[in-house]
Write a structure and sequence with these properties.
Strand content: 15-25%
Order of helices and strands: EHEHEHEHHHHEEEHEEEHEHEEHH
Oligomer: single chain
CATH architecture of the largest domain: 2-Layer Sandwich
Largest sheet: 5 strands, antiparallel
Radius of gyration: 21 Å
Bound molecules: adenosine-5'-triphosphate
């Protein structure tokens, strides 16, 4: 029986499903009923399975197995559906499920990224160590809600109030660059899919108002959209080097390691150093700016290639070479 590509109707589903169709797969969108019209409108899904709430998702196990579906994860699937339920589902899943353990915790991410030898913002273990601008982060803060910046221990003590759980990280002044990678197990090669920057509310709006009005505002980083970005070409060697190191380290901590799409979230300083403040171990929504292709992927493949399509191409080649087991986690 032919395979189908299935994903949850949110995040990067349009890209994933369009890419799967371009590679000749049958496609399935699993949607909340009030979102289904979008996927119908764009015609990217051969079948739409409607659910009333995300908690219903695990009940689709038999339906998906019957359709010989391969599930493509994205951040919304991970955020909205219970992780244990996803882990327990027998539906084939593209990617290494075990990576989630390393990605979901800031401390473990740090161990992984340090092992890869990347430049990370310094962490201040005690507020008395704050000797430069720092960002104070909280666990599970969606869109950086409540994060604040401080310059000194005194300012920290004044702003922290009664909160007990936090991380104080050096604030890197530079520009954010999100790097989209794809590591192909089948071709044994790391590919660069593109770069984006984020458009975040309200932080990206604050520069539009005068300083006297800025002063008392609470900064948030709620993601609203993304912009495409081309990087100085002389930075590409470093970009590839960082991606390779992350893959190598992931093989040591969590065999067979990370594969498929992933993203390093970085800030680049004026001396052209990349500081990595987070890793996403699957397709990021920033790749949507290249729903058809990025210039890099176009040169590499000689035809338009989105990250969504790249996933489908990998699956197709795995099927053709009878190596599907190697890429399903
Ligand atoms: P996500 O949804 O990606 O998990 P989050 O809510 O955990 O996001 P972060 O991505 O950690 O938040 O950070 C929010 C914003 O703060 C980002 O726009 C990022 O550019 C900025 N930021 C985070 N850490 C630093 C840092 N150390 N130096 C400079 N900017 C930072």
């Amino acid at each position: 029986m032919e395979y189908s590509i299935a994903t949850l109707g949110s995040h990067s589903a349009l890209q994933i499903l369009k890419g799967a169709k371009d590679e000749g797969f049958r496609t399935i969108a699993i949607c909340k009923s009030d979102h289904a019209f979008v996927y119908r409108h764009f015609g990217v899904a051969d079948e739409i399975i409607e659910i009333q709430s995300y908690s219903e998702f695990p009940t689709l196990e038999d339906a998906l197995l019957k359709r010989n579906a391969i599930l493509i994860p994205h951040a919304s699937l991970i955020a909205y559906v219970d992780l244990k339920a996803i882990e327990g589902m027998k539906v084939p899943y593209y990617g290494n499920r075990k990576i989630l353990f390393w990605e979901s915790d800031r401390e473990r991410q740090r161990i992984w990224l340090e092992k890869a030898g990347l430049n990370l913002p310094k962490v201040f273990n005690d507020p008395s160590e704050i000797d430069r601008p720092a960002i104070v982060k909280f666990p599970g803060a969606k869109g950086g809600q409540g994060y604040f910046l401080v310059k000194s221990e005194r300012e920290f003590r004044r702003k922290i109030g009664k909160i007990k759980e936090y991380v104080i990280q050096e604030y890197i002044v530079g520009i954010p660059v999100y790097i989209h990678y794809f590591y192909s197990v089948i071709r044994n090669e790391l590919e660069l899919m593109g770069f984006d920057r984020r458009y975040e509310s309200n932080v990206d709006g604050i520069g539009r108002i005068p300083p006297n009005l800025q002063r008392d505002l609470k900064v948030t980083y709620t993601i609203v959209g993304n912009f495409p970005l081309m990087l100085r070409e002389s930075l590409l060697p470093e970009v590839f080097k960082m991606g390779e190191s992350v893959i190598k380290a992931s093989k040591e901590i969590c065999s067979p390691g990370i594969y498929g799409p992933f993203c390093l979230e970085t800030v680049v300083t004026p001396d052209l150093k990349f500081y990595v403040f987070e890793i996403s171990a699957r397709i990021v929504a920033g790749t949507n700016v290249f729903m058809e292709t990025s210039p890099y992927a176009l040169i590499k493949h000689g035809k338009p290639m989105s990250t969504g399509r790249r996933i489908a191409l990998e699956i197709r080649e795995a099927i053709e070479q009878d190596r599907l087991k190697e890429i399903l986690g």
